[in-house]
Each structure stands twice: as structure tokens, then as C-alpha cells.
Design a protein that fits this description.
single chain; about 325 residues; Nucleotidyltransferase, domain 5; 2 domains; 5-stranded mixed beta sheet; 13 strands; about 20% strand; globular; binds zinc ion
Length: about 325
Amino acid sequence: MKKKLGIGVDIGGTNTDFGLVDAEGNIVRRGRLKMAGYDDVAVYVKDLAEALLAALGELDAEAEGIGIGAPNGNFHTSCIEHAPNLKFKGIIPLSEMIRQYINVPVMLSNDANAAAYGELIYGGAKGMKDIIMFTLGTGVGSGVIVDGKLVHGFTGCAGELGHAILVPEGRLCTCGRRGCLEEYASARGICQTFDELRRWVTCYTGKLANIPLRGLDTKLIADAAYAGDEVALKAFERTGFLLGIAAANAVAATSPEAVFLMGGPVQAGKILMEPLEKSFHEHLYVSFKGKTQIRVSELNANDVAILGAAALVKMPR
Ligand SMILES: [Zn+2]
């Protein structure tokens, strides 16, 4: 009998990455399609399916199922719906299109939901039933798991905690409203916080004094903070403080066992995590105090998108 492997597909604006994943969560084969070559979704799906079938053939394996993490992926409809970063416009019935080539269950969700489910199946949340995941990157995504199940909600779009308003009348968000968490806790938001703080310090002469906002990234700011730049340190403290409030607020809705965080800014380590934990525990409602952990994802940053997508295959159907 052929061995069964899960398939995880991560669709992004630049690349589609896929991986074949064994039962222990090891990615045993990887592949990539460059999105620039595809204007026609039908051609894209055909090439993707052929690449998956070729990889399965080489490993003499068959697919247990295919999980897909995609921007604006709607779990209920299994369609990509109006994704701003993809060339494929409108509503794309992706799962159905793939099943015409590979007739196995195909599950589709957005990338943050997939990351949360990946943590549950393969990462630090193994054995837990209730978690919330925040993914910090270009934006802020989140996935909510209750009683072992991803929460999709009435619309299929639940878990948009990055667009929960944290600062009334605050920074203008890409979504058109003001004060969303994303504008403060994304990589972009952290850079902006640093930029604001250095303007307020009249004689800021740190290493980053001459780097314009668009030249900053969270790694530069973190390195400066570790080298003793107090303004850089303050930027992470402020981020941790706000993110701690956002996480504590989220806990009030579903009472998770742990809140997980992942993504580039989290690599900053203790300069973010210490103020975050302090703020989180300070702002938790009494019923949850001392009972809710805050944790960093245990999945490898290079693997999480594929593992998260592959984990969707393990969802109870
Ligand atoms: Zn927003």
C-alpha cells in the first residue's frame, strides 16, 4: 500500500510554495511556482496539480488531502474571494478546480487560520483545545481555535483581530478605518512607532537617526535596542504594551489556554516579549488571570505556512 502524505499549499502574491508532509509533521518534499507567470487561473491550477502529482509519484505516495492557505481564502465556500495581492480577480473556486485533477479532500482557509491550526497539530499547542494565534508580519493576522475547531463564524472570515480597533481615532489603517491593532503591531507599525518616538526626542542621535522611515525594519530597530538605543527599546515596549492589551481583550471572547505569537517582529525576543507579557497579565480580566499563557510559536518560520496548510487536512470533517 502506498504511504499517505498530507499536502500543504501556501499561496502568496509572489510564489506558491507547497510541501508534502508526513504524519510527524516533517516536510519531505518542497516545491514552488512563481506567480508572475500566471494570468490565467486555469493554467495555474493545472501546473500546480501536475507538480503535486509529480512529487507524489517520485515518493511513491498518495495524497491524504490538500490544505491550502491563501489570502482571502474562505473556508465555508472553499473559494479565494477578491484577494487584493493576487492576479486572479473575483471569486475563484480553487478547491473545486484542484479536485478535477486530484480527487481528494481539499480544504482552503486564510493563512493566519492555517498557521493557528498548524500550531495545534504540529507545534507548541499540541494537546491543547483552545488557542488564539497572532501572526505579525506585513500585517497582523489571527486565528482562533475553540474546542479543537477553527472558528470561521457566520461569514467564514472570523478571527480578524488585526483589525480590532485598539486606539480610537488612531493611525489610519489600510482597511480605511482608524486605530486597528495592525497599524501598531505589524512590522510597519513598529517602524512607525519608532519614527514617532525619535521625532519627540529632541536630540535623538542614535545609529538610526539618518535612516528614513521607509528604510527601517524591525530587525534594525531590534539590533539598535540591544545595542543600547533607548528610543528603539521604547518602540518595542510600546508595541508590547499595546499588543498585550489586544491579546488580553481577545482572551475575554474565547478563554484560550494560550495565546501564541509568530512572525518577524517576534524574533526581536525579550525586548518585545517582556513588556508584552507584563501588559497581557496586567490587562487580563480576573477570571483568566494566572490561567492563560502567552507563548511564542514553536513552528519553524520557514515551515509554518506549509505545515499550517497541511494541518487543515487533519480537520474533522
Ligand atoms: Zn484595519
